[in-house]
Amino acid sequence: MKRSQRNAKNRRARHVRCPVEVGTEYTVDITETTPNGAGLCRIKGFLVLVNAPKIGNCITVRITKTEPMSAEAEIVQ
Fold first, then answer.
1. Torsion-angle region of residue 63: left (phi > 0), alpha (psi -120 to 50) or beta?
2. Cα–Cα dist 29/41, whole Å
């Protein structure tokens, strides 16, 4: 019997280890934006959402929240 892709995807997500920790600061480049206006960057291949205004900005961020597939961060001033 074939497994559905949805079940396979959910199983993979449980084993992903988050390479970032809450409270840690990183220097990142914003590579994309979401339709909501949030900036996207990657830390060690892990997706991080930042409230950044422009693509291409090199900023320092602090991780505020982590989830199995992504994290949220705020800009450090």
1. beta
2. 6
Give the span between the Cα atoms of 63 and 44, in whole angstroms: 14
- Rounded to whole angstroms, the Cα distance separating 24 from 7 reads 32
Which domains, ranges and CATH numbers included, belong to the chain? Answer: 5-75 (2.40.50.140)
Confidence (pTM): 0.74
| Residues 8, 33: Cα–Cα separation, whole Å | 28
Cβ 71 vs Cβ 63: under 8 Å: yes
pLDDT tens-place string over residues 24-68: 999 999 999 999 889 999 999 999 999 877 888 899 999 999 998
